[in-house]
Write a structure and sequence with these properties.
By secondary structure, the chain is α/β, with parallel strands linked by helices. The chain is 44% helix and 20% strand. The chain contains twelve helices and twelve strands. Bound molecules: beta-D-glucopyranose. The site of beta-D-glucopyranose (BGC) has 11 residues, from helix 2 and strand 9.
């Protein structure tokens, strides 16, 4: 005997058919799901870059009519945590994952998982070696041209040192300097120090290195390390080169804490143009900085992720919109910032 379909079930099925739903889901808007894992969410440059990335995603949603779902997680300095995060982002169905590697020499666990699941990876800011990036065709890198930042910093330091004799405190015609470096092994730390000093010399400055310290990009560590350098070399330091603005600010904190009058401060130059860094240029505490284009890098990374997802509803963006080198790299330039143009950058960021 045939059973009767209850009226309520019939009604649900009918409503479902009329509204076009399948499996309870309404799929009229495409969604691109992008996962991001950060080496340290409290890093000043990275957090400012991510602020721009998130804002750009909202703008791109409007432009393309595609929903962009971001999931941003912090690896808090652990590569093991980051590997787990990538696994979980893949399981959650991310179309693309952006990875700010904790340890740039350890990308293989991540790249193996990505290849196995066919999820493209965009590494950013912490560059892995070419051989690792070439292990699979869907691996990309977005960052800046580190050499450029060292050259700009060296030029700024040379011009200011040669342009104002007060910086040659002992009048010996030689620039006695110290360096505050970022993490050992980070491509930006290695390249910036080398190119900055070489450029100083190429621009006619005789140099003598008094000392250096690794402060891991961090303001507080830089303050402690600078306090020790001040203890040791005191007023003989004529120039402080720093691999980023946060460490320049740490050096300034140390000078202030030591009670050094501003007129006796060494010449200080940074790299990044973070909000606090730009303010220090504006108020004359730093002679200048090399602007690390966080807006450009964030936008390029977002567009690349979006195109790689293959889900552009209006088909408005393509690989032609991404300035890719060797089909894998986006490397944006640095810009020189001094008191003369700092306002322009303050408005931009
Ligand atoms: C930035 C630093 C930052 C580091 C993190 C560098 O490019 O200049 O400020 O701490 O990246 O990886």
């Amino acid at each position: 005997m045939r059973k009767k379909i209850p009226a309520v079930v019939f009604l649900i099925v009918l409503l479902c058919l009329l509204s076009g739903c399948s499996g309870g889901k309404k799929d009229t808007v495409q969604t691109v799901k992008i996962g991001v894992t950060l080496y340290d969410q409290y890093d000043t440059f990275i957090s400012e870059m991510m602020g721009w990335f998130t804002a750009s995603a909202t703008a791109l949603e409007e432009e393309t009519g595609t929903a962009i779902n971001l999931e941003i997680v912090d690896a808090a300095g652990s590569q093991t945590t980051q590997n787990e995060q990538v696994k979980s982002l893949i399981e959650k169905g991310c179309d693309v994952i952006c990875v700010n590697l904790v340890d740039r020499t350890e990308p293989t666990t991540i790249t193996d998982m990505a290849e196995k699941n066919d999820v493209p990876i965009i590494f950013f800011n912490r560059e892995l070696v070419t051989e690792d990036l070439e292990r699979w065709k869907k691996l990309y890198y977005v960052g800046a041209d580190a050499i450029g930042s060292g050259i700009i910093q060296g030029e700024l330091a040379a011009e200011t040192f040669l342009g104002d004799e007060k910086y040659d405190k002992n009048g010996d015609g030689i620039c006695q300097y110290v360096v505050l470096e970022g993490e050992a092994g980070h491509q930006d730390a290695i390249v910036r120090t080398e190119y900055s000093v070489n450029t100083l010399v190429e621009n006619g400055v005789k140099v003598e290195k008094l000392g250096y310290a690794i402060a891991n990009w961090k303001r507080a560590q830089a303050q402690t390390k600078m306090a020790a350098l001040l203890e040791q070399y005191g007023n003989s330091i004529e120039l402080i080169l720093t691999n980023n603005d946060d460490m320049a600010l740490g050096a300034i904190d140390a000078l202030k804490a030591a009670g050094t009058s501003k007129n006796d401060w060494p010449l200080i130059v940074g790299i990044d143009g973070t909000d606090v860094g730009l303010t220090a240029v504006k108020n004359g505490e730093m002679a200048g900085t090399a602007y690390n284009d966080k807006e450009g890098q964030a936008e390029a990374m977002l567009k690349l992720a979006f195109v790689l997802s293959g889900k552009d509803a209006k088909n408005g963006l393509s690989m032609d919109d991404i300035p890719l080198e060797k089909e894998k790299y986006v490397r944006l330039p640095y810009y020189r910032v001094t008191l003369d143009n700092v306002e322009e950058y303050i408005k931009k960021s």
